[in-house]
Amino acid sequence: MTDDDILAELGVDLTSKKVRARTPREERIIAGFEDIVKFRDEHGRAPQHGEDRDIFERLYAVRLDQLRAQADCRALLADMDVHGMLDGVTDEAPIDDLDDNALLAELGIEAPAPDDITQLRNVRSNAERSAADEIAAATRCEDFAIFKPRFEQVQADLDAGTRTTRPFVRDLGMSKADIKQGEFFIVGGQIAYVASVGDPIAAPNGEVDARLRVVHSNGTESNLLLRSLQRALYKDEGGRRVSEPTAGPLFGDRGGADDEPDRLPTGTLYVLRSRSMHPTIAAHRELIHKIGITGGKVETRIAGAADDATYLLADVDVIATYTLHDVHPSRLEALIHRVLNRVRYDVEIPDRFGKPVRPREWFLVPLAIIDEIVDRIGDVTLAGMIYDPKTARLVPEASI
After folding, report:
1. Which entry of 16, 46, 47, 252 is 20 to 30 Å from 301 by CA?
2. What residues form DSSP beta bridges with 273?
3. Cβ(165)–Cβ(242) under 8 Å?
4. Max CA distance (Å), the chain
5. Residue 96 C-beta-side C-alpha neighbours within 13 Å
6. How close are the terminal C-alpha atoms of the chain, in Å?
7. Using one digit for the tens of pLDDT, what is the confidence trace for 116-146?
8. 214 with 113: CB under 8 angstroms?
9. Rounded to whole angstroms, what are the CA distances from 261 to 139, 267, 328, 329, 374?
């Protein structure tokens, strides 16, 4: 008998098994569960829900619930589940995909619609249509002459760079972005001014609402609910909040150019998001941002990003830019990085010559916090603050 005959008599299957290639979805599921296992190894427990929990622990808890609820995911991850975190769950709750957008949605954080032809796009709910209808149902503003100088001044400030616009975003999904009397927004392609805010009223969902008088730069006005304006701004891709005008130099001494050789009369603070398909980066794409300041054009700064380890060897998307005036760039950039130091994205990647590089300007921080940082730059209240990932808020450094 040959060796193969003997092994066959013993019941040993000699047929070579082909290793099936993983689908992108399976790779994403495995990468996501690896993060959960790492959390379990570091903390001695599975991630848990709760507003008092770190935002990333909450993301892991939601992801774990989704993995437990799907038999195919439990089967895929069985060999990795050394702690038995997927055991004991029989109820099925199928979910189309396990990307980070779904996880963020579970936490109430708005996520962009996927570029998928199987997904319905530009189809709004009844509530959204009602909000848009209220915006559209504007009437002629009889006393527009009173407001016209304000719109002209705001436009002049935007042209001069003393005001900037920022995306209107939710505050980490835990509360809705605030709207106050006297603020300016851009919605529906028009500048909108909140002329008055009525008395608080109770909305059907238990939240507090209010009736607004909103005057538009085209000479019309709307009488709508505060929540309706919020929804319209969330859904409008061009919806923006107009900042208050900046006043004077920010930080540092007020010495002349001779005293401050690298002080710039203007600069641009930019926020980038990586297109890298690395599983960890893809799983947290909505939270990983590069923040820096340049005295030139951002487009020039990011040219060739795919070949630069500083940009994670991938192309990037410009998420936001903010115009700065009379700023000491290196001091301001160092201050921002100090504020976010606790959530610096620590990764080591090889450059094109194989030399390991650790990029230092990438942070795990929501865009809403970056907007607050910019606001605090404008009113000179950023110094002494630090980002606390446990509460997902900027807090005085002395309180940590």
Report:
1. 252
2. 317
3. yes
4. 104
5. 7
6. 75
7. 444 444 444 454 444 444 554 678 899 999 8
8. no
9. 54, 14, 9, 11, 24
